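Ticket #4471: structure output looks truncated?

Reporter: J.K.
Steps to reproduce: submitted the chain below (328 residues) through the standard prediction queue, then opened the result file.
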Amino acid sequence: MIEFRFVMGDLARTSFAYSPLQEAVYSLRAWREPARYPHQRPWLRRLGPAFRRQDTELLRALISPHLWIPDYLTPRPDRPRPTFAQQLDRIRDVPPHLLEADFTAAYDTTPDRLPPVVRAGLAHPAAFRHRIAEALDAYWHECLADDWWPRVQSVLEADLTHRGKVLAEHGVGGLFTSLDGRLSWDGEVLTLVASDNCHPWPAADIRIGGRGLVLVPTVFCHGAHTMIDPGLPPLLSYPARGRATISETPPPASDASLTRLLGAARARLLRLLAEPASTTELAHRLDVTPGAVSQHLSILYDAGLLTRTRSGRSVRYARSALGERLCG
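Returned output as attached by the reporter:
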């Protein structure tokens, strides 16, 4: 059981963020145990040739047999939407002497029983830290950044939008329990209980103590979890809503009347926008140019079928109430 203890002001410092570095590192779990992540299988098949060109011995060794990861590889986001490069710079600066403790904790073993590539690396920790950062950088740019990450990012953005709505309608207690059924909230303590089939967790009593709790959605977990080391800044990762959709093909514009009214392309866009998305994300899903998507979105927006909000440097579209009625 893990308990997060809140004091006055801690709720005000609780925030959401997502982490491209965390998703990249967590994606290595799917290469190690693809059966646990069926929604990732189409991506694994597509990315397989590029992945095999990477430093695969090292990348696979970053994930322990029970899928734990050295904490330093998934730093707590310091802003709502950090870039991969910003987060990678942080792990490049981690003191080298911390690597051994993090790897032995992740593997739940002693240093002499770590995988050979890790043992050899820890003999020269500064060089090992550099090799890991370079391997992750290459993996990101050659396998994930162009196609996979925009789709995952759209799922994470939609999740943040949904959680904001839950908070507004059901309050803090409703928000916390919506993240995972194993979470409970009594007004002061947020409790997470492990399910029976989980690898045993170390019990932890984590005092937020003014540091703030960061809630981080991910497409790579089946339940909420936190850092292995409870002394690190409080972070709770939880399953992103809609994570199974990342491999879906675009839905057909199956409603004949909607297609006759809007045309097949605009009808499909309207159906896709059950969850908010940006022009770039929609273009990736439909395998068309952003310019073509933008023209259709402008027409749908002018007709009152969409709403739009700015999210960072992008504009996200969603169905309006009229758009929902048309698709209903």
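Triage note (M.O.): checked the attachment and the full token line is present. The radius of gyration is 21 Å.
Status: closed, working as intended.
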